[in-house]
């Protein structure tokens, strides 16, 4: 300090655009983006999801066309979710093991059209169960762990055989990463990667997604006996440590924005590829304010995504993937 004039003035590096660009610590790149999308039954279907403006459900025959822009913009990977009609759901989620289910048909269509795009398959039973829970129900309605994991293992093998490069278990059963790794290796699928939804919270921010896939209205109760309590973050570190020990290649924290502290803690502790899922409710919340003109759409979108990079993520699953890739191309 020289009198009241400090030698170190942090504003100097903010003085103009070139300096700000030189000192920027984090940057969003198209390689950081994973686009979640919804596949539904039928032919020629492309229908809007009212609670997720800009996102649609498409039938397998229209997937390739739907993904064309993402592919040409260089979005590296897609995460596919099925909209299983009620008639195909049952208590055990048996449609999950149908080799011709929506996920498998979708994967085949996408891999044929874009063999070099990464394809991430969600593994959990909720899109297929009549009760909307992620696993099998036991007495008194409790979600059975090991019995559910046995089905998830078969599901993972089936999805990998259909063309998914990455299996992403989103069910939060104990021990499923190790069991699925063993099942994949046993089926000769040693290169299939595992992206674990390691710290997935029992969150209110999944509402629009559950509406989009049709499991919201079916869900009786909640998922608090397997998804994490929003009050906890030390427990997230234990979940992540277990999944790494069980063979996870990549780790995910979900939701994203309300859990940036968890992401930062995981990043500080574990040198593992780390991803955030900016979930449907976060997207809906931002979109609603953008559509009303209350937020500048591009600026709020890019700031929300950059926050994940700053917290320590390698990449982000986001419904903004295509819009963000478009914006990055313009810059
Ligand atoms: C299913 C699953 C959910 C999401 C991804 N996989 C919903 C849930 O756990 O109820 C939510 C994604 C989103 O909200 O965008 N296991």
Layout of SSEs?
Layout: H1 17-23, E1 33-40, E2 46-48, E3 56-58, H2 60-73, E4 77-83, H3 102-113, E5 118-123, H4 145-162, E6 166-169, H5 176-186, E7 193-200, H6 207-213, H7 234-245, E8 250-254, H8 260-269, E9 274-278, H9 280-291, H10 297-311, E10 315-318, H11 321-330
Parallel strand pairs: 1-3, 1-4, 1-10, 4-5, 5-6, 6-7, 7-8, 8-9, 9-10
Antiparallel strand pairs: 2-3
Helix pairs in contact: 2-3, 4-5, 7-8, 8-10
This protein binds ligand PBG.
The site of ligand PBG has 10 residues, from helix 6.
Binding site for Mg(2+): 239
Pathway: Porphyrin-containing compound metabolism; protoporphyrin-IX biosynthesis; coproporphyrinogen-III from 5-aminolevulinate: step 1/4
GO molecular function, one term: porphobilinogen synthase activity
Q: Determine the N-to-C terminus distance.
A: 39 Å
CATH class label:
Alpha Beta
- Tell me how many strands there are: 10
How large, in whole angstroms, is the Cα Rg? 21 Å
Can you give a write-up of this model?
The structure is a single chain. This protein has eleven helices and ten strands. It has a single domain, classed as Alpha-Beta Barrel (TIM Barrel). The protein is of the alpha/beta class and 331 residues long. The longest helix has 18 residues. Bound molecules: ligand PBG.
In a few lines, what is going on in this structure?
By secondary structure, this protein is of the alpha/beta class. It is built from 11 helices and 10 strands.
